[in-house]
Amino acid sequence: MDSPQADVKTTRLADYTPPAFLVDHVQLDVDLRDGQTWVTSTLQLRRNPDNSQQSASDLVLDGECLTLESLAIDGEPVAADRYRYEKDQLTIESVPQAFSLTSVVLIEPEKNTALEGLYRSNGMYCTQCEAEGFRRITFFPDRPDVLARFTTTVRADKKRYPLLLSNGNPVNQGEEGDRHWVTWEDPFPKPCYLFALVAGDLACLEDSYTTSSGRQVSLRLYAEHRDLDKLDHAMLSLKNAMRWDEETYGREYDLDIYMIVAVSHFNMGAMENKGLNIFNTACVLAHPSTTTDAGFQRVESVVAHEYFHNWSGNRVTCRDWFQLSLKEGFTVFRDQQFSADMNSAAVQRVENVDFLVNHQFPEDQGPMAHPVRPAEYQKIDNFYTLTIYEKGAEIVRMQYHLLGSEDFRRATDLYFERFDGQAVTCDDFVACMEEISGRDLTQFKRWYSQAGTPVLTVTDGWKEGEYQISFRQHTPPTPGQAEKQPLMIPVRLALLDEAGEPLPLDAEGNREKVIILDREAQTLSFDAPGPVTPSLLRGFSAPVVLDYAYDHDQLCRLLALDSDGYCRWSAAQRLYFSALDRLVKGEGSAAAEAQTLLPVLEQVIGRADEDPAQAALLLSLPGEVALGDRHSPLDPGSVHVAHQAMKKALGKALQTHWLSLAENLIATELEMDGRAMGRRQLRNLALDYLAASGHPEAQRLAVELFELPLCMTEELAALRILVHYNLAGANQALAQFAERWSDEALVMDQWFAVQAAVPGPASLPRIEELMAHSAFDWTVPNRVRALVGTLANGNPSAFHSPDGEGYRLFAAALTRLDRINPQIAARLANAAARMAKLEPGRRGQLQNALQGVKKQASDNLGEVLGRILGA
Ligand code: PHE
Ligand code: ZN
After folding, report:
1. pLDDT tens digit string along 773-824?
2. Which residues are CB-neighbours of 792 under 8 A, at least 6 positions away?
3. Which helix (H) or strand (E) holds 90?
4. d(CA 390, ligand 1 centre) in Å
5. Residue 759 reports pLDDT greater than 60
6. What's the predicted TM-score (pTM) here?
7. 782 partner at 20 to 30 Å CA-CA among 437, 467, 563, 643?
8. Which of 130, 278, 336 has most ligand 1 atoms within 8 Å of CB, for mutation?
9. N- to C-terminal Cα distance for the chain?
10. Looking at the annotation, which residues are catalytic?
11. Which among 194, 261, 271, 390 is the best mutation to test ligand 1's pocket, defined by most ligand atoms within 8 Å of the CB?
């Protein structure tokens, strides 16, 4: 990061040194008592033989918000003048080569609203230690390259906390009056960020799994009693993931127990703690009546993601937090492969790319841009970004394609075997790819160190009877990185003739080819009998922006006829964008634009039954935010008007199709398979267009669906349409929904989100009212994201209200939230990252609002605002 706040510490990759001390064993005793928790820890420490430079005899441990009660070395109290605890570090002078250190500290989980370390959630105790939360539990060298074996005893009141969990296997237990205790032992050395503890009164869904080598693993999913009926989908997903990782990567689970605990208060999606995952309820609970189809798919992928971390993250972990993408990028790639195998691969790929280009690309092109392996940070929490996760996954995917699936598997086998039990780097990962393939990936590794989205400009023409295609790559500057080097960019391509058939590209008759670009400019020639439509970046073979001047007919050909799902979708996006761009600039009319799209969209609709989910993706307009990103200076008001006009025009032009899709795709029985979900997706889209067109049937169909839904996907879509188009019965539906679902937190999140997404400045008073609603709760991240996050990220026409009212609400929310949960405040603040692109009036208003917030901001929020404000 190039613009650190003056008073905040910056951590640099270049400064990495191995730990001075290693911890062989940790014995933790956590005594949970109302109002305060006693933590006694005994660390077996010894000087790191691999660290020759550091001869200092002082021991330095991390510790935040700990009240130190006592300290002993090898059982002897440490004199007060031999240690100091200041600035979140405990320093003990002249310690021996090897010794045990016992500390007793007091902590206050009841007061912990930051949800880092030990905290409470709906009457239970739980922990979150990644990245640096363990230091809020006890003194420790809190860094991922210190791996220790943990033995943990949890003590609490028997009645209120019948369940006491930690990592590994239970090895002992006992009772003392109305209290009890359980001791857990984790045989695998692990970094402290993987530590977890849970105490509560929870229901359990239990099952078992037999690994490929025949070991029995007990699978236990825990949730509040009322949610016991929402765990089946997660259990099925877990078993599928376990089998898949054995078959695809040869990875078997290694402990006798695998536990997942659902908690309502959670900063992220879920956490891969060894043997004891802790999940945001939103990523593990699922039931058709309360969870949308998208929610079901999220549960499947997050359960798999956390499970896959057991190898990519836990058995082989990160040397330091600059290597975060080593585990996250790789694990996202693995969960994407899994979801592709479990569902429609083409649809999955388009959904992943859609997410990347509409969310990670803007991050990579704005003030928060950073390399997949950053060079420095202030707060590591701010680096759990789409760049680390999603772009990181694309970098692994490119290596997968460079090597081919067989060599990639050999390379990952080598990686897991060679580095098992170690903390390693992205270089170590790539080295395995190099060793197996015999390729030199030195240039490829620039993908890890260079920020920004490369733009690949493609031109073509005819020369001496040959078709020539030229590529030029350029990566625009990003904060702190003005100059960029050429990257290795794999371009998978085909050349389509006028009938949409791929032409043979070489003497062997291959109709698809991967070209590896590694210079700034390259040109290739092909024999082609007639006009050519290049089908480029097939499967989205590299995370770049493709700039090629397609004409309308070429895009229609790709959309209608290409065999590659990504290229079809991308062609559709280009068609929509070029129409929308003209409307934003005040050129042409929406009705005329819709007419030119009509023939090709009718072709798509005609084939919708082949794959309804894919049809829904192809027929969806790009979002308003993505459209806005193409216009500078950005006037979100005119973008909104153009977007609405286009939607309405497409609604009208294809009205009879929407009506028949909305009516014919109706199901009479609930099914939860991929095809049924795809049909619902298409039907909801059709109903949305129908409502946009103003057809009276839309209201009737929506009310009907809302009154008698088969599942939450139907109910919520109907509610959204009624409310967003302000149709008759909207308010009644909102009230009815709130009444039906008042004690289902995840459903009520949706109720807040639907209202926060009502377009236009007129919805701001209602949103402000909702912030004061009795069901609104600033301490629950899911609820905050549903209301404030939806306003700031998903409702540009309200957020950017010309009078600055949206910014005022946003700023007030950030300030309020920052005192409760700095990580969530900082994450939300990212919604302002487009500030510099706004037209001057709004830019000034947003800037003022944020400057006010920054004055009293936490380190987390301050870092993000500092980058956005350029200070
Ligand atoms: N490591 C978690 C994952 O699987 C994410 C996470 C990070 C959760 C930090 C909590 C805190 O991606
Ligand atoms: Zn992860």
Report:
1. 999 999 999 999 999 999 999 999 999 999 999 999 999 999 999 999 999 9
2. 799, 806, 810, 828, 831, 832
3. strand 89-92
4. 14
5. yes
6. 0.98
7. 643
8. 130
9. 12
10. 306
11. 271
